Amino acid sequence: MTEQKVRWGILATGGIAAAFTADLVDLPDAEVVAVASRTEESAKAFAERFGIPRAYGGWDALARDEDVDVVYVATPHSAHRAAAGLCLEAGRNVLCEKAFTLNAREAEELVALARKRGSFLMEAMWMYCNPLIRRLADLVRDGAIGEVRNVQADFGLAGPFPPTHRLRDPQQGGGALLDLGVYPVSFAHLLLGEPSDIAARATLSDEGVDLQTSALLSWDGGALASVHCSVIGGTATTASVTGSLGRIDIPYGFFHTDRFVLHRDGRDPQEFAADPADGPRGSLRHEALEVMRALRAGETESPLVPLDGTLAVMRTLDAIRERVGVRYPGEDPVEPVEPVAGLTPA
């Protein structure tokens, strides 16, 4: 795979699958050779739209297609365990959308399966592959703002979404947290790692999913993160990280940003902007490029989106859901837990 094009299969035909495929077909080293959907009609329509030679009316045929080097799984996250697991069992490499799975248990099963088979597996956390977010993380690690004290991030949509929408359907892992909150949580993890303590509150729908959730994450070293997500209110969708020597602010759309501002004590603000050569804002090409780089290098996971990091994020999402009382069909019952009063670092 060092010289030939990387051959992609697309599993699912929804909006995110279309957005990813549109970026993928523009990459000279990528070739989309097959697509699968639950129905042959949907697969054929998608294939015709993007000039894909093979369309399957079922996942199994795509998983068994030996001309496919890597499968992009773009189903609702309630189906990620089944879809990605099917592909891994058949010997395919996998890029799986976020949230990676419904819960940490399912994520652990996929990671164990990939490692057992020696297959590549990566969560499609495109934020981690964004060159500007990588630059921001490097600045923080290099001490540009001193010791990190606080992270803030939010992602909210105004809605309203009807009860029949997937964002409110427990069967599809609905709710704000897994669909939107995964970004603020992952941003905090990128800068601080896995938190040592978590408090959370949520507004739940009649269906039992979270319409909005706020969480306070804390670390033993004293850092705090405030994260929020919503499907009933359009938030600023910004992020910031504050340290002992300064602050970095990311404007609207922090998870696919094209700029951020570094504020340091005693200095003028410094703006960092994306290189136009990196492609348009909102492009998903960077995660595709990282997958192809890793495959050509013979790597089974990406250092930009490591599997242990994905598992840590899933544990945090599980803990938040436990505290607010959100349980999906088939999961063990959970009871709402009161937020910890007066959180203090250990």
Protein described:
Helix content is 32%, strand content 23%. It contains 10 helices and 14 strands. The protein has an 8-stranded mixed sheet with strand order 8-9-10-7-11-12-13-14, with helices on one face. A 6-stranded parallel sheet has the order 3-2-1-4-5-6, sandwiched between helices. Strand 12 and strand 13 form a beta hairpin. The longest helix is centred in the C-terminal third of the chain and has 18 residues. The radius of gyration is 20 Å and the shape is globular.
List the helices and strands and how they pair.
Elements: E1 6-11, H1 15-24, E2 30-36, H2 40-50, E3 54-56, H3 59-63, E4 70-73, H4 80-89, E5 93-96, H5 104-117, E6 121-123, H6 126-129, H7 131-141, E7 148-156, H8 176-192, E8 197-204, E9 210-218, E10 224-230, E11 239-243, E12 246-250, E13 259-264, E14 270-273, H9 285-296, H10 307-324
Structural class: alpha/beta
Q: Give the spatial strand order of the biggest sheet.
A: 8-9-10-7-11-12-13-14
The end-to-end distance, rounded to whole angstroms, is 48 Å
Strand proportion, as a percent range, falls in: 15-25%
The 3D shape can be described as globular
Count of runs of 4 or more consecutive helical residues: 10
The largest sheet, given as strand count, sense and whether it forms a barrel, is:
8 strands, mixed
Q: Can you summarize this structure?
A:
By secondary structure, this protein is an alpha/beta fold.
